[in-house]
Amino acid sequence: MRYAILGTTQASHDDGTTVAVGGARLRALLTALALRPGRAVPAALLVGQVWDADPPAEAVPALQALVGRLRRALGHAAVRSGPGGYLLDAEREDVDAFRFERLVRAAADVPDPAAAAVLYDEALALWRGPALASLPEATAEAARWEAVRMDARRGRLGVALALGEAEAALPELAELCARQPLDEPLQVLRIRALRAAGRPAQALAAYEAVRRDLSARLGTDPGPQLRSLHAELLDPAGAPGTPARRDPAPGSVRGAEASAPSGATPPAPAPP
């Protein structure tokens, strides 16, 4: 059995056939169990996650009845009784959130950008909506998964730049930066993409907008990555990986050619 909690909670057989899990409370219970596959979840925690601030007067019997309904939907063996609660008989790999996390870690460790792009795309394709959407109140846990998702999107965009896809990455970068204007790593990616797409003036304007935002909202200056990138924009010749332009040494043949009048023949080297 496979479980999907990155969006409205769903269950499916290994062949992809969907299992009907009807009712908001039933989906909330499955979500709470799927967050801890193979581990006994205390009854009190399940009641809190399923009913949030409005638990029933007889919470334990209500939970037992809900567990019975979930067993009828998934099969009795799928939900077992454990010490003080219930557990979902599943591995982490059976839950989309944990597959997503594994794929993102693997992508970050792959040195080849093309291979990393495949892993990031597979991971991000698992998302069908907001994380833990079937829990009535999941602010803290959902925020953690959304943060991992943002890491994955940053990683995928960084890989796109490494593959020479800056122009294609710019619309997504612009949208993300508009939503999170103080996210410096994201802003670094956008400015790098603008530079790689041949838009140095827009890159400088983007840096200046970030600098103003950081100063106005946080009272801080840009961090080291942004400052270093700004320096590269101001002096492209001094950017890492670009040979610095150096003036010829006095007396060298190149120096003589540079200083000779137009059309003049440079003096021959003096005999030894």
What gap, in angstroms, lies between the N and C termini? 87 Å
The biggest beta sheet is recorded as:
3 strands, antiparallel
The secondary-structure element order is EEEHEHHEEHHHHHHHH
Helix fraction, binned, reads: 55-70%
Query: What is the residue-averaged pLDDT?
Result: 87
Q: Report the portion of residues in β strands.
A: 5-15%
- The strand line-up of the biggest sheet is 1-2-3
**Extended strand count:** 6
Q: Strand pairing plus helix content: what structural class?
A: mainly alpha
Question: Number of helix segments?
Answer: 11
CATH structural architecture of the domain at 2-94: Orthogonal Bundle
As residue ranges, the low-confidence spans are 240-272
**Compute the gyration radius: what is it?**
29 Å
| CATH uppermost class of the domain at 2-94 | Mainly Alpha
For CATH, the homologous superfamily of the domain at 2-94 is named as Winged helix-like DNA-binding domain superfamily/Winged helix DNA-binding domain
Characterise the protein shown here.
With 272 residues, this protein is mainly α. Among the domains are: 93 residues, Arc Repressor Mutant, subunit A (Orthogonal Bundle), CATH 1.10.10; 78 residues, Serine Threonine Protein Phosphatase 5, Tetratricopeptide repeat. The chain has eleven helices and six strands. The strands form two sheets. The protein has a three-stranded antiparallel beta sheet with strand order 1-2-3, with helices on one face. Helix 1 crosses helix 2. The chain is elongated and about 70 Å long. The N and C termini lie far apart (87 Å). The C terminus is likely disordered.
